[in-house]
Write a structure and sequence with these properties.
The structure is a homodimer of 335-residue chains. Helices cover 45% and strands 15% of the residues of chain A. The first copy, chain A, is α/β, with parallel strands linked by helices. The longest helix of chain A has 26 residues, at 231-256.
Chain lengths: 335, 335
């Protein structure tokens, strides 16, 4: 695997709610901090250049022109097939051609998954990919997968997700022997739906550090290192967590503005609350990983700020250095 | 349907984490407030009597002996078949025999569902029951169903849940023409899993006020009146919401205790925060409804306080008076 001073990461400059501004800013910050890393911004040259003009010139920040853009609402498979010059397709092609070591996008998630599947191909032994995301809790981070790549899963898919998630937690989060929980609706092995009850049996028989079933309330408690579920349930969970946390904090802000007394109270409590919000900030972890494809693909949140993009580039670098894809391939040979 | 002064509600005195104390206390509060209602506590006579001795004697609060108890962890179907003298089985039998108009329990949910299915039977046209719960949001309450009765659903089941949920929202929450959202992982009708994509088509063709797909983050925003999903997803959602909200508020308490300054801040902010917590307090709504069975069955949270039990008894009374079961039967005839 490449040394850090040879790492090259392609970043989709056109993807995300705040593209290209926040993306270019985040790429610039990463290139500034990690001088041994090369970042290639993929997208429309004039749009990228206009943003780059705001920042200092860096020798390790380059541009690769891609004339087309896949928009957020476009149908995934169709847009990937018909827009071969889009930043997403060009970015994944750079990985396939060995010109860069990873691709990162905050754009249309479905299109990124489709492009990576089509261009990188699947790892042998994996029939369905999974998106793994690190969810912060006050106790410890929890890896949830799948959060949206494979809505309909068979029990065997969940076992593969557990295997890949374990290697991810070990290599990227440095957790020795991480625990795997199966998201279900009761602790007992008989509880759940048909898929999870069957998956429970397979996971019990596996070599993984299987904790057993976990329930919705166990996620924010950080009960296990990895929480495995189908992509439908995982996506609902992810969006609900974000939505509920932001609703509660918004209501606290409104409460604080209610009277002079509560304004003063909120002011005094502010440093503590800020620390808490930082603890729960997914941007610290920067991005989700598409696992099961034969190459590094980082999917950042559509609303990513430059900080999230910078952290996602760091995760991409670690993923390459730790040879996560190679480790997944190796583990599938022996399982 | 019976007048309020003829309403009789059976309450499982033995079910719940704080039974019989909180249950008896809640039943007493309800009987005190609603003098025209009769409450029958079902369970072990001596245990109930010991609790009743703490309170004033009321003419509309009676006891029905049931010598056995189904514990929280017991396997549902087996315990219902083998414990015919348990408070849960006796309670549902009182409804079936026409001696009471509703049964309420904070005990083993699976056992309550099994007993109601077995004793009441299903409403004609309903092949799977659903548990409907009212989730408070800062904007408006949202009815979620199913939250755990039917883990594996077919698309047609979700349509029935939407029908029953609409009548529930109309009759119990007084919402005219309530909107139905289908919980999925994208707004477009093509997004979701196999079940939801098929259900979307059926709901679009139905007479219901179908809003379309909603996502996890739309629930705390109160985007629709009714959120329909399979019992697996709904149960994960419900437990995650409870768990995340309690984790955040716990962390805010810990933050407040961090320093003298933040202690003072928290003290000043307290009245506002208390109001917010009350807004999000599921105990205000008192209990979930088991829909699809031929009788009124209210399932309260295992950790129910006397306040939750009192409010659940009120919901039971309203359910009888509004003739919700009759309305569901009627709507199924015409659909």
């Amino acid at each position: 695997m490449p040394e850090e001073n040879n790492l090259i990461i392609a970043v989709d400059a056109m993807g995300g709610d705040h593209a290209p501004h926040e993306i270019v800013k985040g790429a610039h910050r990463a290139a500034l901090e990690l001088k041994n890393l090369k970042v290639i911004l993929v997208g429309e040259l004039s749009a990228i250049q206009a943003e780059l003009n705001r920042f200092s010139k860096l020798p390790n920040l380059e541009v690769q022109t891609a004339s087309d853009v896949i928009e957020m609402g476009e149908e995934a498979a169709w847009s990937v097939r018909s827009k071969s010059n889009s930043s997403i397709v060009v970015g994944t092609r750079l990985v396939k051609e060995g010109k860069v070591h990873a691709f990162l996008s905050a754009g249309n998630t479905g299109a990124v998954v489709s492009a990576a599947l089509l261009t990188y191909g699947r790892i042998k032994g994996i029939s369905r990919p999974a998106i793994a995301i690190v969810v912060p809790t006050p106790y410890k981070p929890v890896v949830i997968l799948d959060v949206g790549a494979t809505a309909d899963c068979k029990p065997e898919h969940l076992v593969r997700f557990a295997q890949m998630g374990s290697l991810f937690a070990k290599k990227i989060l440095n957790i020795e022997n991480p625990t795997v929980g199966l998201l279900s609706i009761g602790e007992e092995k008989s509880k759940g739906n048909e898929i999870t009850v069957a998956a429970h049996k397979l996971l019990t028989a596996s070599q993984l550090n299987f904790f057993g079933n976990v329930e919705g309330n166990d996620i924010p408690k950080g009960k296990v290192d990895i929480c495995v579920c189908d992509g439908f349930t995982g996506n609902v969970v992810l969006k609900l967590m974000e939505g509920l946390a932001s609703t509660i904090f918004k209501q606290i802000r409104l409460t604080a503005e209610g009277s002079l007394i509560s304004k003063i109270g909120a002011l005094l409590l502010k440093p503590g609350l800020k620390k808490l919000i930082k603890q729960l900030d997914y941007e610290e972890y920067g991005g989700a990983q598409l696992l099961g494809v034969d190459g590094v693909c980082i999917i950042s949140h559509g609303s990513s700020s430059s900080k999230a993009i910078k952290n996602a580039i760091k995760v991409a670098a670690k993923t390459i250095q730790e040879n996560l894809i190679g480790e997944i391939k190796e583990s599938l040979k022996s399982s």
